[in-house]
């Protein structure tokens, strides 16, 4: 594999592209995951390897050098196969990969031609990495001494940004980030007031000296190498030419619901890894005849197969441009993925015993990463949203708020 990485191999064959990424994930990314986690370090080398196999512009229009792995080009399933393979190797890296691709899908769908040409060429020629940040929670924790949020001042030539965001995934390694900020004040996309008339998407150059990162903010039990720091903006100027789409487009064009099932795909990848690890333990300890092991591993297998079928169904709906159907299915898949992945990992732990929760066991890392990652959306609210839709009530497709 190392020899292959010396030369950037460009191919438009989706099957070859996916096979190259799956090979990288299995042979290289999975081997690096332990150190990235231990050091809470951004997986920069992984992104460089993806650049060398021409995988960094996966969801982008092929006319701009991308692979067209997006609903608009009838192939979101290819992107999700990539994500599943990466999550199987390293769930933290999968989160960084998701954020990069979510940003590219926003640009591909909503940016103008000049912006696409400028930014996509930087990705395909230079390996630039992107992120998309919204996090501005407005409720305080008991120990929290400061407020979180941004304020935006509009000027003729652009926007001036002050304040901060948290959960800024990939901030130590990304070149640019799409900032979801509101002209109405703090809150990001999730807690914005009147977002249809105030929410902006600003493409921010992260090398700007007015921007600083606070790594002390990020010390979680899992997903450590996502480096989701607190980021501070001190009179950061973003020119108008770097504003993506129209005000409110992120909400009115319902972009978040496209990303929701992507989280479920990552949870499935983590369960794949736990299952594979557990099979090795069973075989090495010659426990195949234990009836309880047989039952537990059967349930894990059924969970994987169930989620695989759901993933295929949602992808098929998106690729057919059946967005109303896909929106409903995506929320259902996201909820089930959390439940079945967590149940499956718990069964794997039950089979393998306490030693599997001791480093450097891969299952120990998977358990920690999955525990924090599934908190990204509130499962109770997702389930309530599914129920509200079944009852014919109005729902919030983006963030599953109880008052839509």
Characterise this structure:
With 404 residues, the chain is α+β, with helices and mostly antiparallel strands. Helices cover 49% and strands 13% of the residues. Helix 3 runs antiparallel to helix 4 (91-110), helix 9 (323-352) packs antiparallel against helix 10 (362-373) and helix 9 (323-352) crosses helix 11 (379-390). The longest helix is centred in the last third of the chain and has 30 residues, at 323-352. Belongs to the acyl-CoA dehydrogenase family. This is Acyl-CoA dehydrogenase family protein.
Gross morphology is globular
The Rg value, from CA coordinates, equals: 21 Å
End-to-end CA span: 50 Å
Largest sheet: 4 strands, antiparallel
Tally of DSSP β-strands: 7
Q: Helicity, in percent?
A: 40-55%
Derived structural class: alpha+beta
The topology string of helices and strands comes to HHHHHEEEEEEEHHHHHH
Let me know the average pLDDT.
Answer: 94
Q: How many helix segments?
A: 11
Percentage of residues in DSSP E strands = 5-15%
Strand order, main sheet: write it out: 2-3-7-6
Q: Give unreliable regions as ranges.
A: 1-11
Domain Acyl-CoA dehydrogenase/oxidase C-terminal: 267-373
Keywords: FAD, Flavoprotein
Domain Acyl-CoA dehydrogenase/oxidase N-terminal: 23-124
Family: Belongs to the acyl-CoA dehydrogenase family.
């Amino acid at each position: 594999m190392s020899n292959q990485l010396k030369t950037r191999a460009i191919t438009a064959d989706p099957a070859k592209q996916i096979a190259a990424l799956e090979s990288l994930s299995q042979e290289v990314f999975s081997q690096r995951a332990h150190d990235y986690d231990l050091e809470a370090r951004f997986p920069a080398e992984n992104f460089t390897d993806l650049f060398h196999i021409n995988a960094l512009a996966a969801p982008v229009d092929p006319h701009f050098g991308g692979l067209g792995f997006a609903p608009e080009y009838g192939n979101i399933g290819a992107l999700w196969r990539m994500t599943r393979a990466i999550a199987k190797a390293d769930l933290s890296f999968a989160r960084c990969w998701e954020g990069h691709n979510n940003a590219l899908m926003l640009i591909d769908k909503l940016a103008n031609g000049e912006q696409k040409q400028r930014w996509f060429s930087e990705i395909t020629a230079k390996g630039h990495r992107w992120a998309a940040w919204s996090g501005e929670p407005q409720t305080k924790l008991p120990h929290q001494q400061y407020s979180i949020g941004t304020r935006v001042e509009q000027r003729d030539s652009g926007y001036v940004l002050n304040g901060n965001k948290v959960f800024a995934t990939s901030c130590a390694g990304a070149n640019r980030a799409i900032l979801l900020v509101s002209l109405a004040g703090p809150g990001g996309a999730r807690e914005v007031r009147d977002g249809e008339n105030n929410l902006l998407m600003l493409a921010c150059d992260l090398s700007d000296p007015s921007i600083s990162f606070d790594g002390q903010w990020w010390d979680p039990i899992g997903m450590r190498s996502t480096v989701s720091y607190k980021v501070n903006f001190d009179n950061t100027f973003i020119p108008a030419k770097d504003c993506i789409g129209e005000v409110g487009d992120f909400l009115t064009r319902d972009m978040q619901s496209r990303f929701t099932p992507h989280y479920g795909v990552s949870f499935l990848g983590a369960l794949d890894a736990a299952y594979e690890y557990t099979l090795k333990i069973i075989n090495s300890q010659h426990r195949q005849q234990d009836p309880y092991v047989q039952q537990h591993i059967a349930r894990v297998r059924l969970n994987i197969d169930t989620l695989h079928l759901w993933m295929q169904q949602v992808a098929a709906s998106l690729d057919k441009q059946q967005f109303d159907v896909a929106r409903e299915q995506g929320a259902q898949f996201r909820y089930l993925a959390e439940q079945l992945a967590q149940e499956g990992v718990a069964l794997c732990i039950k089979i393998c015993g306490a030693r599997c929760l001791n480093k450097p066991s891969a299952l120990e890392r998977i358990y920690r990463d999955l525990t924090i990652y599934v908190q990204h959306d509130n499962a109770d609210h997702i389930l309530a949203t599914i129920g509200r839709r079944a009852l014919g009530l109005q729902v919030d497709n983006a963030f599953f708020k109880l008052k839509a």
